[in-house]
Amino acid sequence: MIVVPDDFPSVFEGSAAHERAKQLGALRVYTERGAEDERELARRIGDAEVAINIRAYARFTDAVFAACPKLRMIAIWGTGTDNVDLAAAARRGVTVCNTAGVNAIAVAEHAIALMLALARRIPAIDREMRAGGWPREMLTQLHGRTLGIFGAGSIGAHVATLGRAFGMTVLGWSARGDARRLESMGVAPASKQDILQRADFVTLHLRLTPETTGFIGRAEFAAMKPGAVLVNTGRGALVDRGALLDALAGGRIAAGLDVFHDEPLAPDDPLRKLANTVLSPHNAGQTAEVRRDGLLLAVQNVADFLAGKPSHVVTPAG
Predict the structure, then answer these.
(1) Given CB 3.0 to 4.6 Å as the disulfide criterion, which of 48, 49, 162, 290 pairs with 3?
(2) Antiparallel, parallel or unpaired: β 313-315 and 95-97
(3) How far apart are CA 176 and CA 4, in angstroms?
(4) Per-residue confidence at 318, pLDDT binned at 50, 70, 90?
């Protein structure tokens, strides 16, 4: 049995991936809200051997694994794995796979778009124009500026390519200290502190782990150049929320944010009122191509696992 416990809002049902999954065996798809509740998630999984995880709000904890002893595999649609207790999965013999890389081009484009939106003040100018104004203040160009990239995966690599195309000096930092990988991306390896002190634009493309939680905090904001732009299309918790709000409210930096600590963003969240932000609703990877290819790859990961040849494995069965 294969189950999709969290297709809300629905993207899987009726897709090409849905049709492909039907060919692999019995299939249940839940399109109603509720999988954010641990007990309800476990109930929906039930006796299924495979779960296709669509939404990050469905959290696969040790308690969920304990309640679903027949579960052998989780196929994640997406790159992030922070909603799955990977250590618990390994202990309980559950293989976890993701679709890393499928959304790389789309997310990289979005990261650059956020930089441009802030540098060229596009949202603010659009509002002023619609209100009858004719704003003429100076703008910022990317050419000649320094771009600092944290993360050397496929998204970071595409951001580096785009940054160089704009004529930016590109610095990079790898969580694994992989200077060779950075150099292959056409990026100058640099320390965290060096990037913070030199970069006009800082962009985060790291996985959220215990080590990267709060990766940018008060000390990092203090080290950044005044007027620098922080872009986050990774996970909200990569940045200390209180420190971010203080840095923005003080006008020290600007920020382009696609991810937040709590999603959806609350109507009264102070980020909504800050003029030096451009916000998007965690949709950097929401293109037709990413949705189609990512869902199909998640199902292909299931097919590979059932055939005894698991692919895109994040953590192997214990």
Answers:
(1) 48
(2) antiparallel
(3) 34
(4) very low
Q: Out of 183, 263, 272, 289, pick the active-site residue.
A: 263
| C-alpha to C-alpha distances, 168 to 22, 114, 256, nearest whole angstrom | 47, 15, 18
Choosing from 59, 110, 235, 312, which is the catalytic residue?
235
Catalytic residue among 43, 218, 282, 292: 282
Pick left, alpha or beta for residue 282 (phi over 0 → left; psi -120 to 50 → alpha; otherwise beta). Answer: left
Is the pLDDT confidence value at 215 over 70?
yes
CATH code of domain 2-102+287-315? 3.40.50.720
Give the single-character DSSP code of 272.
G
Predicted TM-score of the model (pTM): 0.88
The pLDDT of 171-187, averaged and rounded, is 95
Q: What is the DSSP letter of 317?
A: -
**Cα angle: 217, vertex 223, 227; to 5 degrees:** 100
Strand ranges (E), the chain: 2-4, 27-29, 50-53, 73-76, 95-97, 146-150, 169-173, 188-189, 201-204, 229-232, 254-257, 277-279, 313-315
Respond yes or no: is residue 235 known to be catalytic. Answer: yes
224-245 average pLDDT score: 97
pLDDT (mean) for 8-34: 97
How far apart are alpha carbons 34 and 7 in whole angstroms? 10
Tell how strand 27-29 and strand 254-257 pair up.
unpaired
Portions of the chain given CATH number 3.40.50.720: 2-102+287-315, 104-279
Rounded to whole angstroms, the Cα distance separating 42 from 232 reads 32
